[in-house]
UniProtKB/TrEMBL annotation:
Organism from which the protein derives: Euphydryas editha
Family per similarity comment: Belongs to the major facilitator superfamily. Sugar transporter (TC 2.A.1.1) family. Trehalose transporter subfamily.
Name listed for the protein in its UniProt record: Major facilitator superfamily (MFS) profile domain-containing protein
Protein topology in the membrane: Multi-pass membrane protein
NCBIfam families for this protein: SP (TIGR00879)
Length: 455
C-alpha cells in the first residue's frame, strides 16, 4: 500500500481517537483533583471530602461505563459508527458542565457516572470504527491508537491539573470535547455500516476517501467487505450466539484479556497515582513524579502502533505481562518494607518511581492497547455488535471493583497487598498469552474466523 493512502487511515483514526484523549483526561481527573477536594480552604464543596467520598468519586465512573457499551452498540447499529462517536460527546459535555458548577458531593457523583456512560460508548465504538476503516496490514496499528491517545489525555490532566484551579481543569475538559466534535464532523463513516444499510454507493465513496484511490481500484476491496456483510446477514446474531462455537472462543479470550488488563492494576495506579507517590514518601515532588510517569506512558504507547503489526500480538503480550509483573512485585516489596519500618527504605526511595515507570512502559507495549485491538479482530461482523458491549461492560465492572476497593485495602492492610495481587495477575496473563492467545497478525477477518473454528 502506498504511503499516502496509509497516511489517510492514520489521520482519520487519529481524529476518531481524539475522543479517547478526552476520556483519558476524565479518567485521570481524580489524580490531581483529589487533593483539591480534600483541601479545607480551596475545596469547591466548602469542606474537605472524606476518604469514603473520594473512593466513590474514583469508582463511580466505572458504574456508568458498565452501561455505556450498550448505548454505544445501539447507536453504532442505528445511526452509524461516526454518529455514534459524535453522540458520545453529549454525556461528556453534560458531565463537564456539572463538574464546573458542582458544590456538593451528589453532583460530583452524578457527573462521574455520566462521564462513565461516554467512556463505555467510546470504548465500544472506537475500536469498531478503526477496525472497519483499516486495511489488514494496518489494523493492529490503528487498534493500538486507543491506548496511545488515552495516555495523551492522562498526561494532559497530569500537566494541567496540579497547577491551575479546579474550575480551569473543567474548562479545559470542555474545550477538548468541543475540538473533537468539530474536527470529527468532517470524517467519513465506516464502509461496513453503509453496506449494512444497503448503500453500496455510500460505501464506495467512503472507501475512495479512506484509500485515496479511484472507484476502479477499490472495487475488489469493496466486494470483499460486501461479501463479509452479506454472510453476516445470513447469520443474524443474538446473545445466545455469543456462547456458541468459535464465537464463544472469541468471547472467553476477550473476557480474559480485559480481566488481565484491569487486574494488572492499571486503573488503581492511574486513578490514585499522586496518592501512591505521597504514600511512598519519595523525595521527588509527587506532581512532578506523576507527570514523568504520564510522559513515559505517552512515549511508549506511541511506539506500539509501529511494532504491533511487525512483532505480532502474542510476543508483545508476553513481554508486557512479564514486565508488569516485575514492576508490581518491586512496588509491593517497597511498600511492605515501608510498612515494617525497614531502614533500607530511605536508600531505595527511588524505587516507587522506577517501578511505576517500568510498569507503565510494559503495560503500554501490550496489556494496554492489545486487548482492544484483538477484540476488534476476533468477532464476526454480526456478533461484534452483540459481544463487544458485553466484554466492555465486564471490563468496567472489574474497573469499579478495583478502583473502589484499592483505597480501602491500602488503608486497612497496606498498599503492598494490592500490588502483590496485581503482580500475580500479570503472571497469569503471561501464561494465558503463551498457551491460549491466538496470533492474529496480518490475518483477514475470514482467516481469523477459520482459526477460531467459526467456519
Amino acid at each position: 500500500m502506498k504511503g499516502g493512502q496509509l497516511w489517510r487511515q492514520y489521520i482519520i483514526a487519529a481524529n476518531a481517537n481524539l475522543a479517547i484523549t478526552s476520556i483519558g483526561y476524565c479518567l485521570g481527573w481524580t489524580a490531581p483533583i483529589n487533593s483539591k477536594l480534600t483541601d479545607p480552604v480551596n475545596s469547591p464543596l466548602g469542606r474537605p471530602a472524606t476518604t469514603e467520598e473520594i473512593a466513590w468519586i474514583g469508582s463511580l465512573l466505572s458504574i456508568g461505563a458498565i452501561f455505556g457499551p450498550f448505548f454505544g452498540g445501539l447507536t453504532a447499529s442505528k445511526i452509524g459508527r461516526k454518529w455514534g462517536l459524535m453522540s458520545a460527546t453529549i454525556p461528556l459535555f453534560i458531565g463537564w458542565i456539572m463538574i464546573a458548577v458542582a458544590t456538593s458531593i451528589p453532583l460530583l457523583y452524578a457527573a462521574r457516572i455520566i462521564w462513565g456512560v461516554a467512556v463505555g460508548m467510546l470504548f465500544t465504538i472506537t475500536p469498531m470504527y478503526c477496525g472497519e476503516i483499516a486495511t489488514d496490514d494496518s489494523r493492529g496499528a490503528l487498534g493500538s491508537f486507543l491506548q496511545a491517545f488515552i495516555t495523551l489525555g492522562y498526561l494532559l490532566i497530569y500537566v494541567v491539573g496540579p497547577f491551575v484551579s479546579y474550575y480551569v481543569v473543567a474548562y479545559v475538559g470542555l474545550a477538548f470535547v468541543a475540538i473533537f466534535a468539530i474536527t470529527f464532523f468532517f470524517m467519513p463513516e465506516s464502509p461496513t455500516y453503509y453496506l449494512l444499510k444497503d448503500d453500496r454507493e455510500g460505501a464506495a465513496e467512503c472507501l475512495e476517501v479512506l484509500r485515496g484511490r479511484p472507484r476502479a481500484d477499490i472495487e475488489s476491496e469493496l466486494n470483499l467487505i460486501a461479501s463479509d456483510v452479506a454472510a453476516s446477514r445470513e447469520r443474524t446474531a443474538t446473545i445466545s450466539d455469543v456462547f456458541r462455537g468459535g464465537n464463544f472462543k472469541a468471547f472467553y479470550i476477550s473476557c480474559m484479556l480485559v480481566f488481565f488488563q484491569q487486574f494488572c492494576g492499571i486503573n488503581a495506579v492511574l486513578f490514585y497515582l499522586t496518592d501512591i507517590f505521597n504514600a511512598s514518601g519519595t523525595s521527588l515532588d509527587s506532581d512532578i513524579a506523576t507527570i514523568i510517569v504520564g510522559a513515559v506512558q505517552v512515549v511508549c504507547s506511541s511506539m506500539t502502533p509501529f511494532v504491533v503489526d511487525r512483532l505480532g500480538r502474542r510476543i508483545l503480550m508476553l513481554i508486557s505481562s512479564c514486565g508488569t509483573a516485575i514492576g508490581m512485585g518491586l512496588l509491593g516489596m517497597f511498600f511492605l518494607l515501608d510498612r515494617n519500618d525497614s531502614p533500607v527504605v530511605e536508600s531505595i526511595s527511588f524505587l516507587p518511581v522506577l517501578s511505576l515507570v517500568l510498569f507503565i512502559v510494559m503495560f503500554c507495549w501490550g496489556l494496554g492497547p492489545l486487548p482492544w485491538a484483538i477484540i476488534g479482530e476476533l468477532f464476526p461482523i454480526e456478533v461484534k455488535a452483540v459481544a463487544t458491549p458485553i466484554v466492555t461492560a465486564f471490563c468496567w465492572i472489574l474497573s469499579f471493583l478495583i478502583t473502589y476497593f484499592f483505597p480501602s485495602i491500602s488503608d486497612s492492610i497496606g498498599m503492598h497487598v494490592g500490588f502483590f495481587i496485581f503482580g500475580g495477575c500479570c503472571v497469569g496473563s503471561f501464561f494465558f498469552s503463551l498457551l491460549l492467545l491466538p496470533e492474529t497478525k496480518g490475518k483477514s477477518f475470514q482467516e481469523i474466523q477459520i482459526m477460531l473454528g467459526g467456519g
